[in-house]
Amino acid sequence: MFNRRQFLMTGTAAAAATVAMPAVLRAQSGPxxxxxxxxxxxxxxxxGQYIKDGCELGAAAVNAAGGVNGQQxxxxxxxxxxxxxxxxxxxRELTGDGVKLFAQGxxxxxxxxxxxxxxxxxxxxxxxxxxSLAITHQNFTRNMFRLGYSAPMCFGGYGYLMADKFPEVxxxxxxxxxxxxxxxxxxxxxxxxxxxxxxxxxxxxFNEPILAPVNAPDFRNQISQVSNSxxxxxxxxxxxxxxxxYYKQARSFExxxxxxxxxxxxxxxxxxxxxxxxxxxxxxxxxxxYPQGAKDNPVSDALHKAFVALRNDQxxxxxxxVAHDCIQTLAQGYAKAKSTASADLIPAIEGxxxxxxxxxxxxxxxxxxxxxxxxYIRFGRxxxxxxxxxxxxxAGLPGADFLEPATPGRPLN
Length: 413
Known about the structure:
This protein has helices at 4-9, 45-64, 84-96, 108-114, 151-165, 180-199, 220-227, 241-253, 255-258, 269-275, 298-311, 318-337, 342-350; strands at 32-38, 73-79, 101-104, 124-129, 144-148, 171-177, 205-206, 210-212, 233-237, 261-264, 283-287, 354-356, 359-361, 373-381, 389-398. With 413 residues, it is of the alpha/beta class. It is built from 13 helices and 15 strands. Strands 6, 7, 8, 9, 10, 11, 14 and 15 form an 8-stranded mixed β-sheet that branches.
């Protein structure tokens, strides 16, 4: 197994707790432009705005510290309109204007549309958050670094943790949107749960997934199916606005009374903030960044403080932390390479290891995968809280223990 120590040794020694840039040697002319492509309209807008906020706060932190080699960062933000065609149009516009550094997220189809164009345009990209296996396997390009958690890592770990904590849950129902990236997630969750159960001499079964179309206005049929599935646990893999609509409708079906355990893929506290006093009793979710649980991380503390000042919201979505660290990755790579040419920048980023908001940021050289710590939170309705909900507990696992083998350029077998 590829453990955390081996992973971190692929980079340089961890930097000090604050994000440090090399000393300014001389003033450089012009800003460092970074193109940010994310979803700012349609159902994905909920997370696209968090990505935009995280990128902007990451750039602001670098600029407030004096920039990179005397240059300020300038973000050029474009909406992918929640489609591969929209992502391509934004990418071609920005590369046509000379932009060489990009952060893009979060929907897999939109990222896969631009990946084949990175090398020919001499572009280096940090991918924000997407978990699809294709990004670091069959569609891998050296011009891309994924600052996100692959499906086997975060959701394999998730299933493993739930099977460990809740041995009484022997049968699962699964609800997901009918897209391949979410199949990767539900498959990984199932594999992780069954692995742990087998280690403990138990069996865990999963019903065939109940599918829903993207942007469905009504999930009552799917909710009825899972309610009558006879399962003990329910794993939801709807995302964005679809997930919020689903949970609002699920409240009237009392799903929290029908199942021993409710698990959400990665919508985390966006659910609670949307439902408020109508929140379900208890839900688990994975998160890449939970600042209230971060210890001895001044980068996380500073980002959380900046986000609260920006949005008056104590509970930022995890995309804020990951997007912030994507900008820091590009900035630190540029500081080291002193060039936007991918031939210089790629090896510079491959050698990085620094303290980010989500923890130590370093990449496995073979496939540019990131293996951060895994965090899972349980939250739900609370009569004593003014918001109507609270976080009850957290649990963690080392991500490197669940990171799949590197197979750049070919599918994972």
